[in-house]
């Protein structure tokens, strides 16, 4: 490590694991004096051409002086970082602070010269781009604002690294060298480039796990029934298209169930992309080392005995991830159920699921193996029998989620052409800030439905190491919905909603037509629509004797009606000779729905197994490949739990996502989802309506306004001066007013009144009428307890009020009374902002008072808040009518309220040191508003956040 003469301690927080362009991982860390041998070995493996590009001259080897210079850093003016794989250097970057003349310098000089060197074997993997992100973040932390780099014109790869980074830059050519200068302040373009690279790299890392060309099951035993043997059998039976190997130290045979068998992965002569590890936890490190040395790209660890088993297991889990990342491998698990990919080009069932799910368009992610089984089972049952042929594209059960998480799978699904709808069961969210960012982007392209487990347990499940949030679950849910996530409460709702979104177009609005052959079922559906906030039309009763043609005609008329956005068809068992048979009714409904592809149709059926099967059969109009399965009749397909599709069979057109533009039933048949209860159908439809509205709103996301009177630099200087006093600082009244004033937020003065005479003097200063308040914590903002006296018009009233307060509640020292000028009458509200350690910066709004607190009537938005966010925030609380003239009262100035919230949002977004702001009460009058109370809390900004360089979670 560094010597005692160095100016700074080793900056461990600069260490990071990153995912590279090809999906592999590397570790980035500071270079120290202990790295001399590694540096020399690294340099020997670099080509002469790359050395020439780095030093502008032939430079076959490093001198002792060079090695000393490149390994001795002060971590302030001279910094070097290395990217490592397997503990060895694959690339380096360094900066040296310089002055205006290009000579070595110290602060306050804010420019540095930067240079890279990447081993030839690792060029093209995005190593230099990742190093640039990290060295730029280090430089900003050390007060450097600008980089300069000199590059030979022929070194086009390195020039591209700089030009593609997205920073504002200048370029000029002098003495045969291209000199690049660029500011390190992140720009919209540099952040967009960083996010795009992150998405491609993380998606590629998941793709390597889900689409391997070869798989080795390590721990596959001779005896059937064990975990390893079961996974090997499942892979073989699913028809995996790549090479498959069984590995077990105890194996003497050369084959196991027809699969080539080996005692060690080292004995396999060909590359292995994926290893499924099913050995006891104590033997896993040896297996991981062998896999890393063999060049395995990723691991699925089903072995248990890790963080779910206690502190020792948690440390074992950390070491597992560290060891795998050392070799550039990513891990699903440990304690994982496995992964599935139904693509005919892959057919991977590296899981404990005994049957391969039907191919389809729904992606599944579950942190729990038990819930993963339940999801697969329900989609088998619902996807095959009740509502058509929709199945699964990919399935990931992450177990303890030590490495690959839901965020990584979202990155993969975002541009996966085989996935149209994403369903996720989450018991914890390791990085909610990143999750909401990814969810917002994913939801803009395809629906994302999430059910959260362990919502009320107060702690993360065993095995999940996540940052704790101080926000209530309802608040986190609201923030997820703001990001476009369809948040449901149960697994049943998850499947119900997912099947609707996979099979029907999004509704254009909340107007719902209801028709069917049961008046009672129609009324139940009508009531359910009202309860879910939909706008149902009066139900149309076709009577119990309705024929299939009656249903077709009624559905066609409803779909043709411009006043209807969706149709719910209710059906009970056929009664009478003229009643519709199941198959005829299903065909009639599909025929009508196909003619109007822009509106969703749902069916509520009561004990109509035949109709459910008929709806499935009616949906499959394309010719079916291959002979009928034995024991099946007519057009019915075999149960997915008893047979799987032919290996390599093309995906049926019916599995595509319907679009309004497609009207050809052969290429885009309508899959009509059926539900056994009106409430379930309507709840799924309600979720689709809300999501569709979010999609429309996301098309016009709003803007973060600029205000000319905001003094950002002045606020920054004030904050820096205040933080000199220490961490976790709550500002006093004068300081709070000064800081908020820099952002155009005026707080009404409140003068202390420790005695009656002081209260009178304060009132004279402010002018009558005044208010007398207590500021003791137990009475603050509690006018209902009598701690506030309003409209005191003169000295006599003020002294009388002072006496009453002290007689009722205690001494002035206990009450801390203040005097404040009266504000115009209006509605008392609360505006707050807080930096949550998990969710990030959140703006909250509600009405002031005990009733709102008791009911939890607060609305929340992620910061930065746009003008559209502010408008919706004001209208999101249940008590919002009080702001808009409820029962004849005067409407208040909501435009001023929205502007106040936007200014608070800007303050917190511009200055991460502002960790909490509370404005209470904010009295909103018919014209203008008054901020009567304010508190601000400051703390040092975090060294790294979601806006920093790409990095995998720390283990």
Question: Please, could you describe this protein's structure?
Answer:
The chain has 955 residues and is an alpha/beta fold. The strands form 6 sheets. The chain has an 8-stranded mixed sheet with strand order 1-2-3-4-5-6-8-7, with helices on both faces. The chain is flat, with a radius of gyration of 33 Å. The two termini are 22 Å apart. The model is unreliable at 1-6, 384-388 and 618-668 (pLDDT under 50).
Summarize the structure.
With 955 residues, the chain is an alpha/beta fold. Strand 26, helix 17 and strand 27 (601-605) form a beta-alpha-beta unit.
Key terms:
eight-stranded mixed β-sheet, seven-stranded mixed β-sheet, alpha/beta, 39 strands, disordered N terminus, 27 helices, 955 residues, flat
* Order of strands across the main sheet: 1-2-3-4-5-6-8-7
Amount of helix = 25-40%
The structural class is: alpha/beta
Arithmetic mean of pLDDT: 86
Number of helices: 27
Number of strands: 39
Termini separation: 22 Å
The main sheet comes to: 8 strands, mixed
The fraction of residues in strands falls at 15-25%
- The shape, in one word, is flat
In the predicted model, the low-confidence regions spanning at least 5 consecutive residues are 1-6, 384-388, 618-668
User: In terms of quaternary structure, what is this?
Assistant: single chain
Specify Rg, calculated over alpha carbons.
33 Å
SSE order and pairing:
Layout (H helix, E strand, L loop, with lengths): L15 E4 L5 E6 L5 H9 L3 H8 L8 H8 L6 E8 L2 E11 L12 E8 L8 H15 L4 E6 L4 H8 L5 E6 L2 E7 L4 H23 L3 E5 L8 H12 L4 E5 L7 E2 L2 E4 L11 E4 L6 H11 L3 E4 L9 H16 L3 E3 L5 E4 L6 E4 L7 E8 L2 H18 L5 E6 L8 H9 L6 E6 L5 H12 L4 E5 L20 H10 L3 E3 L2 H13 L7 E6 L2 H13 L3 E2 L3 E2 L6 H13 L5 E6 L10 H14 L5 E5 L3 H11 L54 E2 L2 H21 L13 H12 L5 E2 L2 H9 L8 E3 L3 H11 L3 E5 L13 E5 L2 H15 L2 H4 L1 E5 L5 E10 L3 E8 L2 H6 L2 E5 L4 H10 L17 H17 L3 E11 L4 E3 L2 E5 L17
Parallel strand pairs: 5-6, 9-10, 9-13, 10-12, 13-14, 14-15, 18-19, 18-20, 20-21, 21-22, 23-24, 23-25, 23-26, 26-27, 27-28
Antiparallel strand pairs: 1-2, 2-3, 3-4, 4-5, 6-8, 7-8, 11-12, 16-17, 16-19, 29-39, 30-33, 31-32, 31-33, 34-35, 34-37, 35-36, 37-38, 37-39
Helix pairs in contact: 6-11, 8-9, 10-14, 11-12, 14-19, 15-19, 16-17, 17-18, 22-23, 26-27
